[in-house]
Amino acid sequence: MQIDINQKSLGTMLKKVAIIGAGPGGLAAAIALQNLGFDVQVYEKAQEFCPVGTGLGLTPNGLNCLEAIAPGIVTTLKSSGCSVGQTVLKSMNGETIRASSSTFLEQYGQPLLTVWWWRLQQILASRLPSDIIHLNHNCIGFEQDESGVKVYFENGNTIDANLLIGADGVNSAVRETLFAEGKPHYIGSMCWRAVIKYHHELFNSYDLAFIKGKQQFMYLLNVGEGYTSWIYRKFMPDYSLSASVEQVKVRILDELTDWDRSFRAIVEATPAKQIWEGPICDRPPLTSWSQGRVTLLGDAAHPMAPAMAQGANSTFEDVCELQACLSQASSLTEALTNYEQRRIERTSIIQARSAVGEMRYYDIETAKEKQERADLTNEHFSDWLYRYKVFADS
Ligand SMILES: Cc1cc2nc3c(=O)[nH]c(=O)nc-3n(C[C@H](O)[C@H](O)[C@H](O)COP(=O)(O)OP(=O)(O)OC[C@H]3O[C@@H](n4cnc5c(N)ncnc54)[C@H](O)[C@@H]3O)c2cc1C
């Protein structure tokens, strides 16, 4: 479908923008598009905002994009999260293998900033009028024609918009309506995680600890304000989910039987109902993210394994590019075409590198993957990743 809206009327014709999902991507997009003067409404399936999600590492590319979208926000994030100083690699019996200082700030002008997903969501939401965020709106599909998009929700509501943005994560209903791909791809590794108020003894000296086990590992992140995010991961070609929340906790503690008690202690201190258990999934890259008046961003567009900590960071890059393309193009078709062209190649590379990086954790690598991993850590690649400049501004 070819949608031609000329430059003069782009702002007027796209007056109503509907964003599905109030995660980091959807909320950042709402701020960015409000800056352009669009009437933006965000629809979120959750009944309420609650303290969920994991600890995230925000890197210079993501932080610079966030700052461009919402000036001053990095200062707020720094006061909520943690600018990582010292990091440590430990064995499962607690021995220190290597300790080092983060060099992000010196190298790239921004720190590695760890923050709780929920706090990031709150900070982004606080930059928006609360009446544009509609909770309890689970999108179940849409239809579009030349004049607009009609979006359907499970609660029976329908809304009309001129532009629909799917920012609804790895199981995106918008993507499914566009491309009917079915379920995401299980990458072969399970995840258990929680964020709790907890002072780990490691944090007297370290902000980030990586503990390596046998085809399993744990991350402990200081995410600020006295909170610790723990993430336990295990290589598991076939996975099964526990029958109850109580069994989830028992299961992890069983897995950690041989681990030092300081690592078990944080799981023991976590209320069972706060532990999230699930498979890690990605999807193959798409060759197009848009059709007509509908496009995707963030995990909906390019879900990836967490190995490189780029899911949210690349999402903020998407938002910056979408904002630039909408502000500069003479038609919606041109804006969305430019947006895809600036994003798909880069995010496909990050998705592929993340999948390779993931297997490194479990010492399961082919020779080709070993080589790709070596490339991954080279300076040129890090520069490419962390010194990202929005195309239109560069
Ligand atoms: C263990 C782990 C560690 C990670 N670590 C990092 C890291 O260090 N750095 C990093 O950059 N990234 C990290 N990520 C990835 C990061 O969390 C995601 O990439 C990021 O949250 C994507 O943002 P998003 O807004 O696109 O999607 P999401 O965060 O998934 O948000 C989607 C939102 O849409 C809502 N939604 C879903 N379906 C519907 C629907 N049908 N209708 C309405 N609303 C809907 C959801 O409730 C949610 O609020 C990690 C992920 C995991 C699992």
From TrEMBL:
Keywords: Monooxygenase, Oxidoreductase
Residues of the FAD-binding domain: 16-345
Domain of life (superkingdom): Bacteria
SUPFAM superfamilies associated with the record: FAD/NAD(P)-binding domain (SSF51905)
MF-aspect GO terms: FAD binding; monooxygenase activity
PANTHER family: PTHR46496, ZEAXANTHIN EPOXIDASE
Official protein name in the record: FAD-dependent monooxygenase
